[in-house]
């Protein structure tokens, strides 16, 4: 049985696929299997996979009969895995040579941990510059750049870790016994997956190493794809909502915040025509969110004002504020009526 299965969904990535596969087959940890799931690529990706599989018996190629997208392709790879650990990789990224060895070493050492998370290297395809990016921020005691933590103790912090699967190596038994799978969605299929792992893990290992090279500024296709399938974000939240049904309000608030923040992050990147098409559905979705605390308590969140504008929350108050407002200063008041400011001096005490 191989030590780890590297699962790679593949769809039209001929430009980057060779570097991805080279980074995996040349890992310092050789006891691996590489499961590539070709998702009906229309370029030369399948030919490249078959070429590499002919040269390396560790490579297995699964061919989807129809385009199933990354989530289901990852699930198929997981079902075919015959290993102790699994790692989900994107076909346009590439690993540092010792990435798998370092992760497996920590998981073998910390047998109670369900997965290991590590940091990322963002590789800008426009400038060719690289930037180190942290996957987590947590002050604790690290030994040789690693620390095992109790998830329940740090759950509020863990929920803020990056949701992507390609900066983590999982114990396969943990995923299968808890029936943790990716959503059948074209985009946003990894958010529910990650939150399931966060809620169900007992312990995890934090590895202070930068081991995956993630390409940025490849093209706008991912943003365009997300715009076309923006309702996937709503469907993902519906699953997350079931997951947090019995959780306390502070945990619910974190999931709600992360959901709305993620939605507006991408929405603000869309073109005006895309925004106009998406806005009615987004407005309807936002109004369905049930906030566990009084809404005013969320005013410090970055999305608060945009949420209010999108849903017409406190619309009457905002209109009245533009017509009339009153501000108190040290020795005077400023009254604003229809944009006209009037300064009124306060009366002195005793007069």
Description:
The structure is a single chain. With 351 residues, the protein is of the alpha/beta class. The chain has three domains: 4-218, Spore Coat Polysaccharide Biosynthesis Protein SpsA, Chain A (Alpha-Beta Complex), CATH 3.90.550; 225-313, no CATH class; 316-351, no CATH class. It has helices at residues 14-25, 45-55, 69-80, 99-109, 155-158, 172-177, 191-200, 221-228, 231-243, 249-267, 272-288, 304-311, 315-323; strands spanning 4-10, 32-38, 59-63, 85-88, 94-95, 113-124, 130-133, 146-150, 168-171, 203-216, 324-328, 332-337, 340-345. The strands form two sheets. Strands 1, 2, 3, 4, 5, 6, 7, 8, 9 and 10 form a ten-stranded mixed sheet that branches. The protein has a three-stranded antiparallel sheet with strand order 11-12-13. Helix 9 packs antiparallel against helix 10 (249-267). The longest helix has 19 residues, at 249-267. The protein is globular and about 90 Å long. It starts with a strand and ends in a 6-residue tail after the last strand. The mean pLDDT is 92.
For the record, the CATH class of the largest domain is Alpha Beta
Gyration radius, rounded? 25 Å
Give me the CATH architecture of the largest domain, please. Alpha-Beta Complex
Low-confidence stretches are none
Tally of extended strands?
A: 13
CATH third-level topology of the largest domain: Spore Coat Polysaccharide Biosynthesis Protein SpsA, Chain A
Sheet with the most strands?
Answer: 10 strands, mixed
Distance between the termini: 92 Å
